[in-house]
């Protein structure tokens, strides 16, 4: 609708023509227009700048899809006798001056988001307080975000400092730890766990079950691999390799292993860990409702304990990524794999899905595994980039 050159045009009626798109701003150049009828079309967007059409006596925009606020300049059109804005999507405040001061000159029905105007229009009152509250809430959010952001940075700095401090206290192999992977017999584990009794069963995981046992007077946790489960053997090999040379106060200590044949002649493989008296973080974050109420009440972490456990986990990961002999990625970090000792110190465990970075891998098996594009992590704990790698 390019009519800018028709400066002497006084009447324009294109109603009911199925026109669409935005109303051309060039209409503002037709300064002689007195009647402009664009109703019953499919125009959208806001009303363009028509503030030079001071001679308009009729402006009909009924039944389109126009939106935005009603232009304030229309209230200064003193010759305007008929302004029909009905059945559009206008919003905001309706003026009360000029043509808007008489209900006989204006129609705004069918615009559910309009408010204010003269009483005869029967529009809802404008809730300026709500807008003010929104602005004040936004200002409050900005004001609070700065100090809390600085507090967050300070907490991150504290955690990193604690990690550096704790790394100086990391385990170093002692005479006993050098022999920590000497294998025990199947008979020893049977006796230690009372024949792998269900009474001693601690948990059941993807690749096996964990039992509480006693070996030479020391309480231990025995993880028996279910070798019928696909990937269980690799999980055993990865865990042995991962824990063979790493020592840190925030990693679960592998005491020994067992790789033999059971009484039925089947392959048997187990890992023996230092026992964690307070179980897993999962049990503390999501207590079992079936437990006694007295026990459930005890399993509540205060803020300081939570911060300490977070720091323990960060320190463990920092050690694995940056200070271990071969950098290791855990790949399955979740609350059930974070165990708590008697002092509520966090220990990261279960390295069955650990990844050795390919550049530092020392065995062909692990080089092959790290170069594989298969997803091995627990669903929900896999890095988004690995999903993209699989499906690209």
Count the helices. How many?
A: 9
- Summarize the helix and strand pattern as letters: EEEEEEEEEEHHHEEEHEEHHHEEEEHH
Specify the helix fraction band. 25-40%
Distance between the amino and carboxyl termini: 48 Å
Rg from C-alpha positions? 37 Å
Number of distinct beta strands: 19
Structural class determined from secondary elements = alpha/beta
Widest β-sheet, arrangement of strands: 1-3-5-7-9
Give a written overview of the molecule.
With 392 residues, the protein is of the alpha/beta class. It folds into 2 domains: 11-126, Ribonuclease Inhibitor (Leucine-rich repeat, LRR (right-handed beta-alpha superhelix)); 175-391, Transferase(Phosphotransferase), domain 1, CATH 1.10.510.10. It is 28% helix and 21% strand. It contains 9 helices and 19 strands. The chain has helices at 128-167, 175-178, 186-192, 232-243, 281-285, 293-298, 303-322, 364-371, 384-391, and strands at residues 11-13, 20-22, 35-37, 42-45, 58-60, 65-68, 82-84, 89-94, 106-107, 113-116, 201-204, 208-215, 218-225, 254-261, 267-274, 328-329, 338-340, 346-348, 355-356. A 5-stranded parallel β-sheet has the order 1-3-5-7-9, with no helix packed on it. Strand 17 (338-340) and strand 18 form a beta hairpin. The protein is elongated. The two termini are 48 Å apart. The model is unreliable at 170-180, 359-376 and 385-392 (pLDDT under 50).
Task: Provide a concise account of the structure shown.
The chain has 392 residues and is of the alpha/beta class. Helices cover 28% and strands 21% of the residues. The chain folds into 2 domains: 11-126, Ribonuclease Inhibitor (Leucine-rich repeat, LRR (right-handed beta-alpha superhelix), Alpha-Beta Horseshoe); 175-391, Orthogonal Bundle (Transferase(Phosphotransferase), domain 1), CATH 1.10.510.10.
